[in-house]
Amino acid sequence: MATSVLLLDAGWRVDRVIGVELACELIVTGKAVAASEDIAQVMHSPSIEVAVPSVVARIGRLHAAQRRTPTCSPRRVRQRDLHVCQFVVDGQPCDRCGDSVDHLMPRSRGGGNGWLNLVAACRGHNHSKADRTFDEMRRRYGWDLRREPYVPSRTEVLVSAIGTPKPEWEPFLVA
Fold first, then answer.
1. How many CB atoms lie under 10 A from the CB of residue 150?
2. C-alpha–C-alpha distance, residues 138 and 128, integer Å
3. Do 57 and 98 belong to one domain?
């Protein structure tokens, strides 16, 4: 399995996880610098040896695209909600896996596919809610949410996609 390296942007914010080969290429071509002393892997060629750090940072200017709202997708909604059903029924938070995504305002009633209209839900609650709005479920059956849906930051989306990070990445992920 290829060794992974944490790539930071020019502002030293999390960009993404890349393979050690790409990290080596970025360092050798002068497009990135070492951001940690921990070595992920030593790469060899006939003429040089490169110790590739476990965290590298790009060199150059910041791109405007870095400040955009992250694209919403069912996978990212489940990551944002930590794969836990967001519905609270009869005062009890659901403890089942949020393996589906529910539209608080159903698409059939004009609801969109945006961050603020989607929550992770277990299949049982998603099926029970069916084509009703969340407000109807709240009024009729006393449903509530663990937390209101929100638009996560780009960094939050990237960090949640990493899963279990390497210990040497921790200082960069909390910054």
1. 10
2. 13
3. no
> Does 15 reside within a domain?
yes
Q: What's the whole-model pTM score?
A: 0.71
Residues 82, 116, single domain; the answer is yes
Overall number of domains in the chain: 2
Distance of CA 23 to the CA centre of its chain: 21
Domain that holds residue 132: 74-145
Q: Round the CA-based radius of gyration of the chain to a whole number and report it.
A: 21
Per-residue pLDDT of the chain (175 residues; tens, 9 = 90+): 468 899 998 888 888 889 999 999 999 999 999 999 999 899 998 999 999 999 999 998 766 555 678 899 999 999 999 999 999 999 999 999 999 999 999 999 999 999 999 999 999 999 999 999 999 999 999 999 999 999 998 878 877 777 777 888 878 877 5
DSSP tag of 11? T
Q: Helix, strand or coil for residue 107? A: helix
Tokens matching residue 22:
């790409």
Residue 113 corresponds to which tokens in the numbers above?
A: 């596919």
